[in-house]
Amino acid sequence: MMVTVSGWDIGGAHLKAALTDSQGKVIACTQVVCPLWQGLDQLTTAFEQIKYKLGSIGHIAVITMTGELVDIFKDRCEGVVAILNYARQFFTDIPIYIFAGTHGFIQLEQSYKFTTSIASANYLATSQLAANFWHEGLLLDIGSTTSDLVPFKNKTPCLQGIDDHTRLISGELVYSGVVRTPLMAICEKAPFYGNWVRLTAEHFSTTADVYHMLGLLPQDVDLYPSADHRGKSPQDCARRLARMIGIDYKNRPLDFWYQLAAYFYEKQCQQLTVAIFQILSKTSLVAEAPIIGVGIGRFLAIECAKRINRPYFDFSKVLKLGVDTIDSSHGPAAAIAQLGWEQLQKH
């Protein structure tokens, strides 16, 4: 069956989508902001923007989601149902399949029976694709808000957690990302001018400031306003970092603020490395099993691989790409599109 497939990753802060050609190669992948906590109408704007960017929604749509977690819904089941209902309204002319984790792709009409399996299952799409390629390894998908850490062996993800709660316990889900995470969630204090300074418990600065200062975060993947809705130059980022320790950034040269940013980078690497060691203490992987980096924060995955002395590969290695400009920044969307296309060929 020669069809094109669009893959949609409906998050609580972003909508991401990818499009395959009729040969199953990913030819487009993009994201837009979608602050779903502000209401379901945000999906309307986001879907229309993505449709314009992709130029097509394909012959078939496949969907995964994490947006059911936002607090406009009383629980995850209500969120899943609401997003499914929206998808039914938007994709009126093409078949829709929902990714339900270990159940695979299910037609929309049948998916309402599998809300628990559908909720926050996007990490299973990327990890399954990685497991199809490498015999064993550890996938690190580091995004704007969260990080997914998924071990796999024998062509199968070997998860300890089965939902967000148990994955938070197991270390397989860490609420730490490279754009939206408040710095007060990274550590409680920071060294500055020879002293340890306790951080203010305010949303004055996020990890985006850290990585803009260090030159690790491209502007085109940071789509949200800064914490004070001002610019993202080194001076702007330094001003927000200074608020975290209760002073004005002009009190010290810019080099001091670069050093403070480097400390937050170090502490976030430690967060992830600690989670990796927790996972590896339960799931033994051979020494040569690699770290697979996915997401806009995969530069942290590279650093984590160095620290635990394991080889590193980029997730783009497993993607069938139709154009050279696509990378693994939006891994779940690309993975869901590719897996969806491959499954459809079997029917």
Automatic annotation (TrEMBL):
It comes from Candidatus Nitrosacidococcus tergens. Residues 63-309 form the Hydantoinase A/oxoprolinase domain. One of its GO terms (molecular function) is hydrolase activity. This is H4MPT-linked C1 transfer pathway protein.
